[in-house]
Design goal:
The protein is of the alpha/beta class. It is built from six helices and five strands, in the order E-H-E-H-E-H-E-H-E-H-H. The structure holds 4'-phosphopantetheine.
């Protein structure tokens, strides 16, 4: 079974990386899908986000990373013979939005199932937004993002790496 793991990944965090590694262990193949036309204005371009994900997942042979074109996620999944959408849940606050998307996606294509993996406890407070904020003000993000992301953030914000 092939699964897809969609998101903005602006940028990928250690929380995402943990979900990717665990999902990769459950499925034959996992395609991480970077939503290109997210409503949010991203810090990293879709190509930069893909490159950072590829570097961060290079040790996982059954994981691929692609840009999600401007189509419905369930249509992409069906076209690429993926039967499962993987999502990570950190807290109750994630639930309502994810529940809405999972139900709508099932209505659109009942044959594509959504499954949720609970975050690792140590990353439950982590988000791409908070990581960007810490990095913007020069805070230490070691252990919160994969090393290539730490370098890319330092570059974006014009900081020296310690
Ligand atoms: O990391 P995010 O921003 O929460 O990811 C949201 C994402 C990309 C998973 C969601 O916006 C999505 O699935 N977009 C693809 C278009 C689509 O199918 N929208 C309808 C969802 S019910």
């Amino acid at each position: 079974m092939i699964a897809v793991y969609p998101g903005s990944f602006d940028p990928v965090t250690c929380g995402h990386q943990d979900i990717i590694a665990r999902a990769a262990g459950m499925f034959e193949g996992l395609t991480v899908l970077v939503a290109a036309n997210s409503a949010k204005s991203p810090l990293f371009s879709a190509d930069e986000r893909v490159a950072l994900l590829r570097e961060s997942c290079a040790h996982l042979p059954n994981v691929g990373v692609e840009v999600l074109p401007p189509v419905l996620l369930v249509d992409y999944a069906a076209e690429h013979r993926a039967g499962v959408i993987v999502k990570g849940l950190r807290a109750v606050s994630d639930f309502e939005y994810e529940f809405q998307m999972a139900l709508l996606n099932r209505r659109l294509r009942p044959q594509v199932e959504t499954i949720f993996l609970m975050t690792a406890a140590e990353y439950s407070y982590l988000s791409s937004s908070i990581v960007k904020e810490i990095a913007r003000f020069g805070g230490d993000i070691e252990g919160l993002v994969p090393p290539p992301v730490r370098r890319a953030l330092a570059e974006k914000f014009g900081q020296q790496q310690s």
